[in-house]
Amino acid sequence: APGPTMKFILPLLALTVTSLAAKTITLTPDNEEWLAVFNGPSLQPGDEIVLTEGTYSAPRRLQITQRGTADKPITIRGAEGAKVIIKRPDAKQNTLNLAGCQHLIVRDLEITGGDAAIRIGKERDHLPKFITLENLHIHHIGGVAITANYPGEVYESLTFRHNHIHHTGGHGEAFYLGSNSNPDGSTNGYIFNSLISNNYIHDLKGGTVSQGDGIELKDGSYNNIVCDNVIHDTNYPGIIVYDTDGKAPNIIERNVIWNTGDHGIQAAADAIIRNNIIFNTKGDGIHSRNHQSALVGNLTIVHNTILSESSIRILAPETFSGKVIIANNALTSEPRIPT
Asked: Would you tell me how many other CB atoms lie within 10 Å of the CB of residue 141?
């Protein structure tokens, strides 16, 4: 028979297991604590926030700093079948800030208002990584839809899939990933090992849009996959990548792009561009030139279908950074299709 000590150990063990169990928190728009739950540190790995139907809006800064684990991510989602809207009442703040989040899933929400719809960055020593944004409807915002572009910050394994993005403002990109090269040589921000897939992106060319790229991967970003996206009516290129600083190439494949105010796809270096369909571009279907610190080279352009007045153009630099392979593309220079 167990002795006296065992009688106390068993209840303590049961209490510990219970306290570690994941929980589901259901929030409603009229519950004033929803903002505190988002901002607060109360969530544990495996926890889930479920938002019921309605509009969630507050004038305060909305910032999420939650961190799950690989086997127990934290999830924030709309209730099944519900129309859940996160709306910033003005453009003085971003609609949603993700600060130092790790192993976080945000899905099934409509996001509107604010400056950037979602801005991702670090929080103290916590770098943002393993974040998934999916099934989001982002529209009518003052700036970029989704941005991970703080200078010097590194973004690992971000997943953006099945999002519908349109009617941005300001710089106007749907995805602004990484930051510009710095003339002083300091480290720019970059994204790696990430997936941008199955997004529907359009109408990034309104009166307040100064740029309006569909998907932009900045200098040094590497080993990213940009695939199966539908992109049209952008002000700048549908997809633009710079170089990878000698690391694994970015892959751009199976995208459909049309009615761009610039090139369909622009890539300086270190990219595999294959099996895309591009038509009705104001610029070239696929275009390559030196861009910031990126030198043209290490490009593979194969099996693309391009219907444009100018199909593929490589502006040759004095020195290439590597081979450029162009093969087995279906090209035509027929006039633009009326729209």
From this structure: 26
149 and 218 in contact (C-beta within 8 Å)?
yes
β-bridge partners, 292: none
Q: Is 228 exposed, middle or buried (0-12, 13-18, 19+ CB in 10 A)?
A: middle
| CB proximity list for 134: less than 8 A, separation 6 or greater | 105, 106, 107, 159, 160, 161, 162, 163
Spans of the chain below 50 pLDDT: 1-19
Cα(63)–Cα(97) distance, integer angstroms = 5
List the one residue out of 292, 287, 336, 293 whose CA is nearest residue 315. 287
What is the pTM assigned to this prediction? 0.90
Each residue of 82-101: pLDDT tens digit?
Answer: 999 999 998 889 999 999 99
**Contacting residues for 11 by C-beta, under 8 A, at least 6 apart:** none
Question: pLDDT (tens digit, 9 = 90+) per residue, 222-251?
Answer: 999 999 999 999 999 999 999 999 999 999
Query: How far is the C-alpha of 154 from the C-alpha of 140, rounded, in Å?
Result: 28
- Given a contact cutoff of 8 angstroms between Cβ atoms, the answer to whether 255 and 285 are in contact is no
Cα separation of 96 and 103, whole Å? 17
Q: Which two tokens stand for residue 253?
A: 């494949």
User: Residue 37: which of 21, 26, 22 has the closest Cα?
Assistant: 26
Q: Which of 294, 280, 282, 289 is nearest to 332 (CA)?
A: 280
Distance between start and end Cα atoms, the chain: 84
